[in-house]
Automatic annotation (TrEMBL):
NCBIfam families (UniProt xref): cbbA (TIGR00167)
GO biological process: one example: carbohydrate metabolic process
GO molecular function, one term: aldehyde-lyase activity
The protein's name: Tagatose 1,6-diphosphate aldolase GatY/KbaY
Organism ancestry: Bacteria, Pseudomonadati, Bacteroidota, Flavobacteriia, Flavobacteriales
Positions of dihydroxyacetone phosphate binding: G174, G202, S203, S204, N223, L224, A225, T226
InterPro entries named in the record: Aldolase_TIM, Class_II_FBP_aldolase, FBA_II
Residues that, per the record, bind Zn(2+) 2: D101, E131
């Protein structure tokens, strides 16, 4: 099934699809194993820096062959595409979905940029996500100034024809220094104002209850990154401190397995029985 239809059908059932970033074979396979064991679909995300790290061809082929190897239904998505150039490169490379992040731009410029990407994506039937409002990037200040306005969301989706919209309701990328305080009333208002799939960014550090609540109010895609890196590197550090083992094929699987456990927990949280 196309990602667009799948997101729509899941959202209608008040379910969400988990979108996870991967950085290498281990983080990818750890995630795919979880999706396979719970028989759930997954969106595999690459940022520009992950593409630069692995190389575009290696990264996309790793994802495609991984889905096949683990027998998982999933899609390849560009996360936070920061320029038209990177977005078009990924569309040409066969990505199922791209995010154009024009959230730093004034409203009209964000509309313009997003519209251009939507038009280009049409020739591939690809799915497009945009961002409206301000979701703090790693290390940025978190304040309420940039929350998504329901009226602007409505206009933005109508004017751009975008499929999915990242909303700013109080989440932030990375871990939270203080307990996050999400504006669920605002989320409901946005959901009532638009038919676009709503995307929750910054899910690392949110409780399972928070994730479930966001889904129940209409979020269709849940983005998770930092917790994956954190559990992988934390486990590696502990394992390496324990022994002088130099065979990475003995050490890495322990960390990969921790990712599988993490992703299974998240999948269970967002798909209440
Ligand atoms: P976290 O790093 O907080 O999980 O956010 C991930 C994200 O929004 C990727 O787009
Ligand atoms: Zn994000
Ligand atoms: Na976060």
């Amino acid at each position: 099934m196309q990602i667009k239809e799948k997101l729509k059908s899941y959202t209608a059932l008040k379910r969400g699809i988990l979108a996870t970033n991967f950085y290498n074979m281990e983080t990818l396979h750890g995630t795919l194993k979880a999706a396979a064991e719970l028989n759930e679909p997954i969106i595999l995300q690459l940022t520009q820096s992950s593409i630069e790290y692995m190389g575009l061809k290696t990264a996309t082929q790793l994802a495609r062959t991984g889905l096949e190897q683990f027998g998982v239904e999933g899609w390849l998505h560009l996360d936070h595409g920061g320029s038209k150039e990177i977005v078009l490169t990924c569309l040409d490379a066969g990505f199922d979905s791209v995010m154009i992040d024009g959230s730093d731009l004034p409203f009209e410029e964000n509309v313009q940029l997003t519209s251009e990407v939507v038009k280009y994506a049409e020739k591939y039937g690809a799915h497009v996500e945009a961002e409206l409002g301000y979701i703090a990037k790693l290390g940025q200040a978190k304040d309420k100034v940039g929350f998504t306005s329901p009226d602007q969301a409505k206009r933005f989706v109508e004017e751009t024809g975008v499929d999915a919209l990242a909303v700013a309701i109080g989440t932030a990328h990375g871990f939270y220094k203080e307990k996050p305080n999400l504006d669920f009333k605002l989320l409901s208002a946005i959901a009532q104002n638009t038919s676009a799939t709503l995307v929750l960014h910054g899910s690392s550090g949110l409780s399972n209850e928070c994730l479930a609540k966001a889904i129940s109010l209409g979020v269709g895609k849940i983005n998770l990154a930092t917790e994956i890196k954190n559990i992988f590197m934390g486990t590696l550090k502990r394992e390496m401190a324990k022994s002088d083992e130099i065979d990475l094929r003995k050490i890495f699987p322990v960390a990969t397995e921790k990712i599988t456990e993490l992703i299974k927990e998240k999948l269970r949280a967002i798909h209440p029985a």
